[in-house]
Amino acid sequence: MNELNITQVKEMFAFMADEIMKNETLLTEMDNKIGDGDHGIGMSLGFRAVKENLPNMKADSVNELFKEVGMTMLDAMGSLGGYLWNHVYQRLWRSASCREVDPGNSGVYDEAFSR
């Protein structure tokens, strides 16, 4: 299998959320050394909201899911971090019209971030 369908991408986001929330303290400690120490808190807020909302997301394609995840993170985080995460997923949403994602095809990501 070379592609991830929408169910698998939702599972990926749920896994990412679990890992971010599990490492909130570590991310915050790292940010304390170079910034204001809120990175772990903000990321945890955003990904917690994503995980809670995944079952209710109505996306029928992977790129529609990227759009919903981005907006969820922006709404939950509200900070520059939320804007940046939203920007990443909005770019992915706009760059590819796909129902599935081929993780080995970096062309989608190259296109999304070349602008």
Your description of this structure?
With 115 residues, this protein is an all-alpha fold. The chain has helices spanning 6-22, 24-34, 39-53, 62-77, 80-95, 107-113. It is 71% helix and 0% strand. The model has no long low-confidence stretch (mean pLDDT 78).
In short:
By secondary structure, the protein is mainly alpha-helical.
Spatial extent as radius of gyration: 14 Å
Cα distance spanning the termini: 30 Å
Query: Could you say which overall geometry the principal axes of the C-alpha atoms support?
Result: globular
Please provide the count of β strands: 0
Give the H and E element order.
Answer: HHHHHH
The helix tally amounts to 6
Low-confidence stretches: none
Helical amount:
over 70%
Kindly list the characteristics that best describe this protein.
single chain
Task: Please write out the topology.
Blueprint: H1 6-22, H2 24-34, H3 39-53, H4 62-77, H5 80-95, H6 107-113
Helix pairs in contact: 1-3, 2-3, 3-4, 4-5, 5-6
